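$ ./design --mode recover --in tokens.txt
reading tokens...
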């Protein structure tokens, strides 16, 4: 009796760990990425965030599978340029100088996060962790604390009572993006 229970538990753990691999490979197949690749670099196109508007900004999203773990590293970059010096030049300056100044104007927010999937995935939600937060925004002090709070709230949403096994990796990332898609508000705070 004990041997049968042990074997059953062992088989269930093997099946659960394969779920992460299957879902990650399914995402790669959807995006037509080679099976040997561990990096997905064009996720913003699949999600539908590929339209670039200099005033609203642009997303760049990549996922890298961490070898030896059931985890991925999510790299997100948001870039916006509030003023277009190429279109509206500074008076009495040559166009080339305006272009050089223009390179320093974009405001960016770069986030590196790790999403960990435990052995009971997809029946329990992943846990998110902020690894790094860099920004080129003028006058913001506590942006890392803000994103830590958002991730904490997202982890609570992914708790066992609110999580659904039907949520795929890319859908969970999209859900997270909807929570942080307020970059214009962050720039307005200027804490």
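writing sequence...
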């Amino acid at each position: 009796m004990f041997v049968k229970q042990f074997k059953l538990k062992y088989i269930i753990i093997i099946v659960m760990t394969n779920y992460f691999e299957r879902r990650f490979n399914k995402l790669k197949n959807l995006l037509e990425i080679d099976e040997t690749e561990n990096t997905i670099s064009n996720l913003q196109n699949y999600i539908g965030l590929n339209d670039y508007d200099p005033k609203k900004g642009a997303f760049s999203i990549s996922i890298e599978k961490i070898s030896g773990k059931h985890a991925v590293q999510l790299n997100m970059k948001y870039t916006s340029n509030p003023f277009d010096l190429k279109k509206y030049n500074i008076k009495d300056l040559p166009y080339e100088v305006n272009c050089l100044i223009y390179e320093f104007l974009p405001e960016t927010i770069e986030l590196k996060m790790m999403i960990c999937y435990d052995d009971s995935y997809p029946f329990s939600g992943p846990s998110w962790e902020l690894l790094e937060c860099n920004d080129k925004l003028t006058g913001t002090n506590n942006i890392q604390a803000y994103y830590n709070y958002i991730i904490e709230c997202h982890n609570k949403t992914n708790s066992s009572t609110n999580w659904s096994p039907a949520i795929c990796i890319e859908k969970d990332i999209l859900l997270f993006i909807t929570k942080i898609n307020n970059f214009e508000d962050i720039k307005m705070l200027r804490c």
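exit 0
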